[in-house]
Write a structure and sequence with these properties.
- The complex is a heterodimer.
- Chain A is of the alpha/beta class.
- Chain A has two domains: 15-208 and 252-268, Rossmann fold, CATH 3.40.50; 277-417, Rossmann fold.
- Chain A has helices at 20-30, 46-56, 70-82, 93-98, 102-108, 133-137, 151-165, 195-201, 239-268, 293-308, 326-333, 353-361, 385-401, and strands at residues 15-18, 35-38, 63-66, 87-91, 114-119, 144-147, 174-179, 188-191, 219-220, 229-231, 234-236, 277-280, 287-291, 313-318, 320-322, 338-343, 370-375.
- In chain A, the strands form four sheets. A seven-stranded mixed β-sheet of chain A has the order 3-2-4-5-7-6-15, with helices on both faces. A five-stranded mixed β-sheet of chain A has the order 12-14-13-16-17, with helices on both faces.
- In chain A, strand 6 (144-147), helix 7 and strand 7 (174-179) form a beta-alpha-beta unit.
- In chain A, helix 3 runs parallel beside helix 5 (102-108).
- Chain B is an alpha/beta fold.
- An eight-stranded mixed β-sheet of chain B has the order 2-1-3-4-6-5-7-8, with helices on both faces.
- Classes of the chains: A alpha/beta, B alpha/beta.
- Chains A and B meet through strand 3, helix 3, strand 9 and strand 11 of A and helix 2, strand 2, helix 3 and helix 5 of B.
- Strand 9 (219-220) of chain A pairs parallel with strand 2 of chain B.
Chain lengths: 429, 302
């Protein structure tokens, strides 16, 4: 693991003030993406608007297929990737859900497509604001999933994602997510790297399918059977073997994700924890806040105050959500006492996804830490420092009392303001 | 017109595919690939053609194929073309999308409409067996009036969607209809389409022995009856100019057309048609032809 303690002194050179969306667009430009296909949706749209501008200005020689739906956007990406091009798109919420059919297709096909996701809540009712509901719905389809905390990280993670996805040991699609509005529309300084250095880091794609080479005939994705097929010409795997290979590739990609992160850190002087999660003041901490994206960022503010209360508290900000880094997390948490998880999502009918997945991952530890999950910030509700502080206090109090429950606990609700609130009738809209 | 002896000997489909005996689509596909040749990439959605292409690890054609989910044929072709353009190979390789009527007129209509509206330089061929045959004969938007399917046991209400007309309304440079019973007509149309830049659309009637309920040996005969009765019309529309194709030209004269009953009685799927529905068919066919006649006359006047 390469840790860049002190970020390199940035010269003014190539530092731009960019929104998260534009940081993603610049990463696509410098990754020299060959085919882009997208459909507008808030808050993602500025990614593809910027890309269209780059193409119009001749700064990016890509084909941009302006489709009539996100379903088609990802279908275009799949076919273009299989034909051998470097391919990417961007979307949010309902757009991602409309792509859903094509997501396992891309994974099963082992296509190194990159999606940028400006996270947004799922209707109904309509909301254009952030939460991670869209991001978590695709956790079971075979994609690598990253979550970012700032605009530089969006840019850097995109460049790494292409390299990881296109690694012959991996060949998997990846999604780079960041909170809608909080990052997608907020401007921050972003260092854009020198093109030659990026080209060295990210060589041209050598695709394992490449239909454009018509000298060999390929039938991609024909019907498979539950069993292998033996014929005089050879033996072909069944669906089960293909999907086994997909899972194995996801499992082994964790070490490659770390490797690419380290190579990036050495070359460009920026690191993000170990490439799969980032830690803040965890060395002496017995209590850890576990969160993703905007929520982890807000926790960085909260722990300053919590530390003043003499709490030995730190943060683990999960960067790699899939493949789930259970082994690293188990190692990290083996000596920790308390974990407080803040989920900007719910696995509806159960609890926050980060919370229950972490509980499952740590089940095999000899000494299991106390874990409590909170739901925060759905539909863009502000996640305030005080919410996190109150959550930590409440969790520690419950741990002391020996209360452990999977029942969801929402922070930042304003039910008191609703004099007529009645759970049984709040569904009429 | 091209002669049989002029057709290339090379076959692009290996013998012994998994298509049913007497499959109209298999014949259409064979002719289309002969016309387009080896420098082609194909994309196919879930359909009978997926079955023809065979099981894992093997490909029934000498041309690469990318299988794609049901609704995405137009998008998939756009993706292949975009990548070929990215690689500077778009002028060398023809992109062919081949889908059934369900995949074209129903679930795939959005992606197809988008693709042709963008002017995607590809050929889209719909082989129309007038129902979801691969899933067991359920009605589609292309199933004709009164047809018995597993989801219309009492016969389908309403006529089939006029898909070539819908595609024509997109203002694309080439729309053609076809049928395997007139292979040379089909061959010439694919040859022509290959050299036209932009979106080319084929709608090809594809008799289906198990779905239509007839003896597999009669595929060609039934296709001919479809033309001779005027139920199916062979034509092409090139840059807006309508032209009846030779096999259909003589049926502009209503007296030359065989009675529709001769076509309907050959297939079990029409067995529940009432006399009233047969009369509706007669009006339907007369109206379509009247529209064509007036179009040709107006065109000549211009």
């Amino acid at each position: 693991m390469i840790v860049i303690e002190k970020q390199k002194e940035n010269s003014d050179e190539n530092i731009m003030i960019l929104t998260g969306n534009h940081a993603a667009a610049h990463a696509f430009r410098q990754a020299k993406v060959g085919v882009i296909s997208a459909y507008p949706i808030t808050p993602q749209s500025p990614v593809v608007e910027k890309i269209a501008e780059f193409i119009a200005e001749g700064k990016l020689k890509a084909r941009f297929v302006k489709v009539e739906s996100e379903h088609s956007a990802l279908a275009v990406c799949c076919a273009a990737s299989a034909t051998g091009s470097r391919v990417g798109t961007a979307t949010s919420a309902h757009g991602l859900e409309l792509m859903y059919e094509m997501l396992p297709w891309a994974a099963g096909n082992r296509l190194p497509i990159i999606i940028n996701l400006a996270t947004r809540s799922l209707g109904a009712p309509w909301s254009v604001w952030t939460d991670h509901s869209d991001f978590i719905t695709i956790r079971d389809v075979g994609w690598i999933q990253f979550m970012c905390e700032n605009n530089q990280e969006i840019y850097d993670t995109n460049l790494q994602a292409f390299k990881i996805a296109e690694d012959p040991r991996v060949f998997l699609p990846s999604i780079v997510a960041y909170d809608g509005y909080i990052l997608s529309h907020t401007m921050m300084p972003v260092k854009l790297e020198n093109q030659e250095k990026i080209d060295e880091f990210l060589p041209p794609l050598n695709h394992h399918i490449n239909l454009s080479d018509i000298s060999t005939v390929k039938g991609i994705d024909p019907v498979t059977t539950p069993h292998i097929v033996k014929r005089p010409e050879g033996t072909a795997p069944g669906y089960y073997e293909y999907r086994y290979a997909l899972q194995r590739s996801l499992e082994s990609s964790i070490s490659i994700i770390k490797e690419v992160h380290d190579e990036f850190a050495r070359k460009f002087g920026r690191s993000y924890g170990n490439g799969i999660y980032k830690t803040v003041q965890t060395e002496d901490a017995d209590t850890i806040i576990f969160a993703m994206g905007s929520v982890a960022s807000q926790a960085r503010v909260a722990i300053k105050q919590l530390r003043e209360e003499d709490l030995k508290i730190g943060i683990v900000s999960l960067k790699l959500f899939r493949p789930y880094p259970y082994s690293d997390l188990r190692e990290f948490f083996k000596d920790k006492e308390n974990i407080i998880v803040f989920d900007r999502d719910i696995g509806y009918g159960y609890e926050g996804v980060l919370s229950y997945e972490l509980k499952a991952a740590l089940y095999s530890l000899q000494k299991r830490p106390n874990i409590k999950g909170f739901i925060v910030g759905l539909g863009g509700r502000d996640v305030k420092t005080e919410h996190i502080i109150n959550g930590v206090h409440k969790a520690l109090d419950e741990f002391k009392q020996g209360i452990f429950t999977n029942k969801t606990d929402f922070l930042g609700l304003e039910l008191d303001e609703l004099s007529d609130y009645d759970e049984s009738t709040y569904f009429g809209g | 017109m091209v002669k049989v002896m002029d057709l290339p000997e090379e076959e692009f489909i290996y013998p012994g595919t998994r298509a049913c005996a007497g499959c109209g689509m298999a014949l259409i596909y064979r002719i289309a690939l002969k016309a387009l040749g080896a420098k082609t990439l194909i994309t196919v959605p879930a359909s009978c053609l997926t079955v023809l292409h065979g099981m894992q690890g093997f490909c029934s054609t000498k041309i690469s194929v990318y299988h794609t989910p049901f609704a995405t044929t137009g998008a998939s072709a756009s993706g292949i073309l975009a990548s070929l353009e990215d690689k500077g190979l778009a002028d060398e390789i023809t992109v062919l999308a081949f889908a059934g009527d369900g995949g074209t007129t129903d679930i795939g209509v959005q992606a197809l409409s988008g693709a042709v509206e963008r002017g995607t330089n590809f050929i889209y061929a719909c082989y129309d067996n007038e129902a979801y045959m691969n899933t067991g004969v359920q009605r589609s938007g292309s199933t004709p009036l009164g047809v018995k399917t597993t989801t219309t046991p009492e016969g389908k209400l309403g006529h089939k969607k006029n898909m070539p007309k819908i595609l024509e309304a997109h203002g694309i440079p080439y729309v053609a209809t076809g049928i395997a019973s007139y292979p040379l007509d089909l061959y010439e149309k694919f040859k022509k389409a290959r050299n036209i830049h932009g979106s080319k659309y084929f709608h090809i009637l594809s008799p289906c022995p198990p779905g239509w309920g007839y003896d597999p040996k009669d595929t060609i005969l039934i296709g001919r009856l479809a033309i001779q009765t005027g139920f199916w019309i062979l034509y092409e529309v090139e840059n807006g100019v309508f032209k009846l194709s030779k096999p259909s030209a003589r049926y502009l004269d209503p007296s030359k057309r065989k009675p529709i009953e001769e076509y309907l009685k050959t297939q079990k799927r029409f067995s529940t048609l009432t006399q009233q529905e047969i009369d509706v068919y007669k009006t339907y066919i007369n109206n379509i032809w009247a529209e064509i006649k007036s179009r040709i006359e107006n065109q000549d006047r211009i």
